[in-house]
Amino acid sequence: MSGEVLVAGVGAHPWGKWPDKSQLALALNAIDAALDDAGLGWRDVGALVAASSRFEGGMGWGLHANEVAQAVAEQPMACINVGGACAAGAIAFHTAANLIASGECDVAIAFGAERMPKGFIPRPPGGADDITDTDFLRWVAMGATNPAYWAIEAMRRRAEHGTTDETLARAAQLMRRHAADNPLARFRDPLTVEQVLASPMVADPLHLLEICPVSDGAAAVVLCSERMARRTGARTARIAGSAIGSGAFGDPARRIPSIASTVNGGTIHTSEVISAARTALDRAGLSPADLDVLEMADNSAWHLLAWPELLGLCEAGQADWLIDHDGFGRDGIAALNPSGGFLSFGEATTAQALLQICELVWQLRGDAGRRQVEGARVAMSAVLGLGANGGSVVLTT
Q: Which of 49, 96, 87, 83 is nearest to 382 (CA)?
């Protein structure tokens, strides 16, 4: 980015199931909160970037930017829609940041809003039986939903590092402990290891309480130039680095929609996310050791063990010990998902990465209340989207 870009305001609607609220209503609630937080109004906005989605088999949700503009602010501004499945929010943020860095506008909003179908994400109704569609092949060849893929990874970790059922359960327990102080989280009741292990087995070794559900929710982030920040006096966070990524050939990760792939020993696992995170840190001139807060996609308890290692916070196999000894708590080597993470919110796909960025800002400004990480100065997000989409944002005070 050629110019300094700042986050001026953030807002989010509580996560949950909201059958009486439209997707548009959820979006406007989050956007209005973010604009109020920034001390700005619709007349100041030069661009609106929507995290939308469309991927294999015609599956997809999300709300387009022009739908919001037509509802509240028909005025000259760029309305842009970006995809990327569950990483769409990070891509929307990255797009908005570059619009400001290029000088195209002084204020841009990135937002995502979702009303998810109940239960595990199914095959899209009416989807064509197309043998060239890898997602169609996934359904007819395996019939496997996401938890089966995550369970395969968890089984591999058990073989490679001796990960126990109790450690997986403690990872889920940690997220609930963090969520207890977050009024936006859908699931806030504390959990014991015994409760996690007593929940129904979904895909061995992952139990129901070790897998994120789906939720409705919306989040928005207002970005601005230095000039605008000086005018408004907003309490800003600095965008030190932002990057998006795609998967590399030979990646050993098991992920939808692939049912088989060639593994190259020299290719990093979850390459779309790890490459984005490394690039974002490089652009910030920082390293994983500098992080005070990490908000990452914890679609399952396995992710909470594997991703901190892949992202460089600790060595391969060390995350088990850190989870067992509270090494990722608010006083740990880095606070892991102080918001409570996907396990406590349930995933509202296109909105989720923007909610991560909201939490980073609240932590850096000291606005996180009882879940505040004391002295937080560097915070990073990392998110994965179906179809090998990845994104990462590094913010600093």
A: 87
pTM of the model as a whole? 0.94
> What per-residue confidence (pLDDT) applies to 106?
96
pLDDT for residue 83: 86
Q: Is residue 88 within 8 Å of residue 356, measured between CB atoms?
A: no
Both structure tokens of 291: 């992080």
Q: Is 41 helix (H, G, I), strand (E, B) or coil?
A: coil
SS3 354: helix
Q: What is the DSSP letter of 300?
A: B
Q: How far apart are the first and last CA of the chain?
A: 18
DSSP string, 235-299: --EEEEEEEEEE--TT-----TT-S-----TTSPTTHHHHHHHHHHHHHHT--GGG-SEEEE--S
Give which of 15, 79, 105 is closest to 341, Cα–Cα: 15
Express each pLDDT in 296-319 by its tens digit: 999 999 999 999 999 999 999 999
What are the angstrom distances between the C-alpha of 260 and each of 62, 141, 214?
29, 11, 26
State how far the Cα of 386 lies from the Cα of 388, in Å rounded to an integer: 5
User: Given phi > 0 = left and psi -120 to 50 = alpha, else beta, which region is 367?
Assistant: alpha
